Amino acid sequence: MFIGGDSSLAPFEMFQFQHIIMITLLFIGIIVIYVTKNKKVQRSVEIITALSLILFEISYQLWLLLTGNWEIHHALPLELSSISIILVIILLLTGKRELFEITFFIAIGGALQAVVTPVLNFGWPHFRYWHFFYTHIAVIWAVFYFLWHKAYRLKFWSVIKALIFLNLLLPFIWLINNWSGGNYWFIMEKPAGGSLLNYLGPEPWYILGMEAAAVVMFTALWLIFGRGKESVER
User: Which of UniProt's keywords are assigned here (predicted)?
Assistant: First the structure.
């Protein structure tokens, strides 16, 4: 039940207790990070958090292999939430301000949506359940930690940097999709069933709708959180 490949033994149910408790934990953590923003956090906490994310990601890849579920068209860490995990790991280890400017928008835009509306088959107490929510929640907590505890600043130029970063990655994601038969970032086709992408126009023009949605979302995040103090360089 904990590591098996059959989701029917521990199915995930959206907006039931096992989901609501994680959403609640996410927002409680954000509040705690804000309330304690003037308290010093040991450097070791940043390193341990980064190492825990690395361990979880390696364990996830091993689990996919051991259960026979590893397929190149879906298992590569190329989705936005996976990219945000990689960026947060590097941010925790290096503390680079320039990286924070990009990571904040991608992490909030990708991981927050993933926690609220998860694409997840395995529920409590399965390994995949813990992997999914730990990594996504930790990513969100990490960027708010850098925003409030370390007083890293978001500027409007940060929005532009994040958009440029994503658009530089886009052609590589498209090439990998063509090579692997995957649909990373949903740029090859819309996901099956109902999706917000259905409201962004027909194929392939919905990709421009995704671009516009990213501009609106990132700008809104800057308006809400971009009034911080000058960042402290390491």
Answer: Membrane, Transmembrane, Transmembrane helix
Residue 11 bridge partners (DSSP): 122
Name the residue range of residue 163's domain.
7-225
Global model pTM greater than 0.85: yes
Q: How many domains does the chain have?
A: 1
The model's confidence at residue 229, banded by pLDDT at 50, 70 and 90, is very low
pLDDT band at 110 (very low <50, low <70, confident <90, very high): confident
Token couple for 60: 């996830």
DSSP state of 227: T
C-alpha–C-alpha distance, residues 133 and 118, integer Å: 9
- The helix (H) or strand (E) run that includes residue 138 is helix 127-148
Confirm if 119 and 129 have CB atoms less than 8 A apart.
no
Tokens in use for 201? 């126009």
d(CA 103, CA 87): 6
Q: Are 51 and 163 in contact (CB under 8 A)?
A: no
**Residue 2: inside a domain, yes or no?**
no
Q: Is residue 183 part of a domain?
A: yes
Q: Which residue's structure tokens are 């026979």?
A: 68
pLDDT tens digits for 166-185? Answer: 999 999 999 999 999 999 99
SS3 assignment for 12-78: CCCCCHHHHHHHHHHHHHHHHHHHCCCCCCCHHHHHHHHHHHHHHHHHHHHHHHHCCCCCHHHHCCC
Residue 72 has pLDDT above 90, yes or no: yes
Amino acid in position 177: N
Most confident of 86-95, 114-123, 201-210: 86-95
Give a yes or no: residue 234 inside a domain: no
